[in-house]
Every structure is written in C-alpha cells, then in structure tokens.
Design a protein that fits this description.
The protein is α+β, with helices and mostly antiparallel strands and 371 residues long. It is built from 15 helices and seven strands. It is globular.
C-alpha cells in the first residue's frame, strides 16, 4: 500500500533505494529539476565517488553506518563491495521479516486503540515493499492517541513487551514509551516528536484509515510523512544517516500536487515552519537548488535560519559528512532557534532542562518499570 491510496504508483515505479536507476516506469520528477539530473542522482554520485576513496572493508562499513544497503545492487560500485554487502542484506531481511510479524501482532493486541505506523515500519510497506532487505531498522515506531498511551503499553505486555528503565525514568518529559522484549523493541509514541514544534499528537495530524502489513491501521497523509522525515533527519544532524535523505528524495518524487500544497498549513499547525524550512535549505545547499523545489513558501524566520546555518552548518555543506554537533550546550539551543513561537521556545527549553536533570540525577524506579 501507499499513503493516501497511492500504493500502485509507488510499486509501479520500481524505485530501488540505492540501486541507481528505476527498474520499472519512471516516477514523477519533482518540478523544477534542471535537465535530467535529479537531486537523488547527485547524492548517489557523491556516495559512489566517496566509496572509491575507501578500501572495500571501510566502504562496506560506511554504507552500513548510513543504512545504504540498496547500493549492493548498484552497478557503479566495485563487485567486491557489492559482494561484501550481500550477507548484511540477508541479515537485514531476516530481521525485518521478524519486525513485520511483531508489528502485526502488536496491531492485533492493541484492538480498538487506533494505531499508525511511523518511519521504518511504515516505509517497509511502501517504498521498500519490493525489497525489504535494504532498509535496516532498529525498532518499530507507532503512534497512538495521547489519552490511550498507557492503555496501549498495558495491552502490549502479553507480547512480553515491557517499558525499559530509561523510558520509565524519563516518561514525564518524553513523548513515547520504549518497550523491549525478546522479539524486538517497540516505541509507542503519543507525539511525532518534532522537537521544534508545539504539538504533533493524533488530533493534530492528518490521518486516514488504511492497511499496513495486512493489518487495518491509520496512515499519515503524504504531507505529514514528508514533514516528519524532514524534521526527524534535522533533529539527528542532517546527513548523519544518508538513508533518511534518500527516503526523503524518493517521497518527493512520489508526492501528489495536493500534498505539496498542504505542507505550509500543516507545518504552521505543528509549529514546524522554521524546522522544515531549515531542512529544505540545507538539502538545497548540499544537492542543488532544485531539491524539494515544489515545497511552497513557508513564511519562516530568515534571521533564525541564517543564524542556525551559521552556527551548525558552516559555509560548505557536504552530504557525505554529517553536520557538526558542536558544543553540547550550544546544540541545546537548536530547538530554541527553530521553534515557531516564543511559547514553543520556553516550553521546549523547560522540557529539555527537566530531561537533563532527570538524566543526571537518577531516581528510584517505580513498580511499573521492567528491568
């Protein structure tokens, strides 16, 4: 399936992540591309040229670190490197098949609690459906209504999924519960966790009923999926994992005109205009001005964006290298710089302060924690 009922279009495109050329029909290109070179092709060319400077072992490790297992079928890289990646691809496929089964069981266990798959588990049933072995995934992320978060955690207990110590300790300031079990890890979210925005709960998001991995669920609308991936990549230092950038570029090629037009209003409602604008600006600086050129004007603060870029991006943006993390305390003002309003700034800074205090001074674990 595909978000907003576009499963057939995504599957027909045959777009293999990291594989270079599409294997089927050409996907719709983002408006404004210069010539026939897409931002995604620019990214792949930079990756291939970087791999040529590394030994086979170092190149394999670098690709695995960035989650770019799709390059195992890219004819532009040397055969011995492709051969080095194939065992890892089989391992990821096995792990993902287990994750899919765990997700199916979680969806059944939650019963009447609405649930929406996020990030990796959602993408495995869309752009990775034809080859789920090329997308490494650490845990399963799902979104539920905030009022039913505790109930959802309780319903997953029969699957031997229990909240770990860190999640229990920080639950007063975190927007999710991290559940660990013998079959894997599941993060149950009450918010998208944009960091930069005021709220992204179930009621704030455009969702519609659908199917994921043969289970009835709720799905994020196309525009919400792209906004989430952009802000998530920015939160974790842009280019830290290039698979996230690759996925953003693939989604940009598949997004409908309706979804592009809906992005400004959604970003405004979530308080994420500055964050989305910063991510788009940095991607254009790295991959060319045609990148995500269909994103309408976001009415973001140019002063804050310029200051953010000066502090955290530098003059030259290279997609091969993550943005520098900088001083630990300096990095804490990133949400402050990119929040859309002064209220959002204050609330997020207060939350981060409490988070640091709880991390620095552990407290007694309650009876609800599973260690």
């Amino acid at each position: 399936m595909w978000v907003c009922g576009r499963a057939d279009r995504a599957n027909r495109s045959g777009f293999a992540l990291g594989g270079g050329k599409p294997t089927g029909a050409e996907p719709r290109q983002t408006p404004g591309l210069v010539g026939s070179v897409t931002p995604r092709e620019i990214l792949h060319d930079r990756v291939v040229r970087h791999l040529d400077t590394l030994s086979t072992a170092a190149a394999c490790s670098w690709l695995l670190g960035h989650g770019l297992l799709g390059f195992c079928s890219n004819p532009a890289i040397r055969p011995e490197l492709r051969a080095c990646l194939r065992p890892h691809r089989r391992s990821v496929l096995a792990r993902n098949l287990l994750n899919i089964r765990l997700f199916q069981d979680c969806a059944l266990a939650l019963g009447d609690i609405p649930v929406a798959p996020l990030k990796g588990i959602a993408l495995l049933d869309t752009i990775y459906r034809e080859d789920p072995g090329i997308r490494p995934m650490g845990d399963i992320d799902v979104l539920v209504p905030r009022a039913r978060l505790a109930e959802a955690v309780a319903r997953l207990a029969p699957l031997r999924l229990h909240e770990d110590y860190v999640s229990h300790h920080l639950r007063s300031v975190m927007h999710h519960r991290h559940l660990q079990g013998p079959r894997g890890a599941v993060e149950v979210h009450s918010h998208l966790g944009l960091v930069y925005g005021r709220s992204s709960t179930w009621d704030d998001l455009p969702l519609h009923p659908g199917t994921a991995h043969e289970r009835p669920v709720w799905l994020l609308a196309e525009e919400a999926l792209l906004v989430h991936l952009l802000t998530h990549a920015l939160k974790h230092r842009l280019f830290e994992r290039l698979v996230w950038i690759d996925e953003i570029l693939v989604l940009a090629e598949l997004l409908s005109d309706r979804a592009w037009a809906a992005i400004p209003e959604l970003a405004r409602r979530l308080g994420a205009r500055n964050a989305v604008a910063a991510a788009v600006s940095l991607l254009r600086g790295a991959l060319g001005e045609s990148t995500l050129s269909a994103v309408p004007a976001l009415d973001a603060s140019h002063t804050r964006l310029a200051l953010y870029r000066a502090l955290f991006a530098g003059r030259v943006i290279d997609p091969i290298h993550p943005l520098p993390s900088g001083n630990r305390w300096l990095s804490e003002i990133r949400p402050w710089l990119l929040a859309d309003s002064a209220i959002d700034m204050g609330l997020d800074m207060a939350r981060m302060t409490v988070l640091h205090l709880l991390t620095r001074y552990p407290r007694r674990v309650g009876s609800g924690a599973h260690i």
